Amino acid sequence: MKKLKGAIIALILTAALAGCGGTTPAAATTTTAATAATEVTTTMATTTTTAATTTAPPETTTEATTTTVISYSPIVREEIDPEKPIIALTFDDGPTDLTPQILDILEEKQVVASFFLIGDNINDDTAQYVIREFEQGHEVDNHSKTHSQMPEMTFDEIAAEIQYTSDKVEELIGIPTPFFRPPYIATNDVMYEAIDIPFITGYLPNDYMDTVDVEQRIENVKKSAKDGLVILLHDFSGNVMTVEALPTIIDNLKAEGYQFVTVSELFEVKGKTPEEGKAYTIVL
Ligand SMILES: [Zn+2]
Description:
The chain is about 35% helix and about 15% strand. By secondary structure, the chain is of the alpha/beta class.
């Protein structure tokens, strides 16, 4: 049975905020009480070193902390209204030197997306982008190891491709890849048997073609947008026309009332469980 992997996987990022700098001397000493020190040692090392010398009782000046829960399915972010249309932006073929430009735009526009990574593209230079994808709340998914014609491979070769990329991602963010997109959207029965995570295809606005310019990329997405649709874009190196098109693509979708979701959220909001032997372009 293939179901969403990592059912409830959450990373709690706790950041000590107030008091980390610019505090008054009085505030600094009161936060150094023994009980507080154990909690804040990792982030407040310089402040807590004064603990031994202080005689002040532990007052109630507790550290202000924020807790951010970044999660994959099946947790749906609260701000998603299931009565309104949703859409999933996805990016294939990263991580590359183009990826941070995509991430900058997504951050500025405050939308989430899903990145389908090629395992062989994850290296010492690009690992930071995978981590940033995750920390920004995007989903990190699987686009094989070598981006080859997988229908030509054996069962074991196919399985190894997916395992490699999932392992690389898990090393970096602690979560295996929940979804798979077949390279060239090429599939066969052996792949469905060998790959234990759901297949995602998507609407392709042809943003991998040099002959499709910025305006066409914008127009293709605009005219094809539908509730529940997966849109397949690319963050391979040099794909600058997609970087140029993306802000307008997002603005147009926002103007039409679309909410942006990860692929996991798409299934969850629609109340659907991915089925074996299917590849999803739209989830309704
Ligand atoms: Zn690809």
